[in-house]
Amino acid sequence: MYIVNILILLALASCGNYSESSGFNEENFSRDLSERVTFDIIKKNILTPHCISCHQQYANYESVASGISSISNAVISNRMPKNAPVLSNGKKSLLEAWIIAGLPREIGQPPSPPVDPKLEATWVSLSTKVFYPKCLACHNPQGQAKFLDLSTRQAFFSQRNRDFGGETLINFEQPEQSYLISVITDPQEPMPPTWSNIELLSEDEINTITEWITQGLP
Asked: Is 68 a domain residue?
């Protein structure tokens, strides 16, 4: 899927020139100079105006580098940005050039190996490492499971008291009895569904989500 995404982005590349001094110009961008695209440029032109207001973790290089597959998936499918115009072809090309260049931090420097941070009981950590890669394909405002929106913490938190067949989405007093825990540990049909070909949540991921509920969804 990741390779397919890159091929799709390649088709979006445009012609022209890129000048670091003048910043990103969609009409004057060339993949021939893609080695000059750095994290600061991606952050200034894509992440800050379109992503960071909801996904604060993407202000950090390590979080973006470790989650680049999820980011590219969301951008290509136009699931993100949420409730806003989709990214232009020029900005998609800019992101594609940065990916092809190896996600460099600065001009002339090889990319730093992304640090895979430990999973923590926070929305930032769980959304980056669990919800986005394993759930967001369906659980987004336009997805087939849009009844449970996992695209932002605000959307999820607003549904915390919702009833699902006698189970509350989040049961703070008995976290193990939360609907969220029930659907990912169902012995017959756990989420994600088998037809999605997405790996089931690990025991550590389930335990971390349970701890997250216990702590009040920080």
From this structure: yes
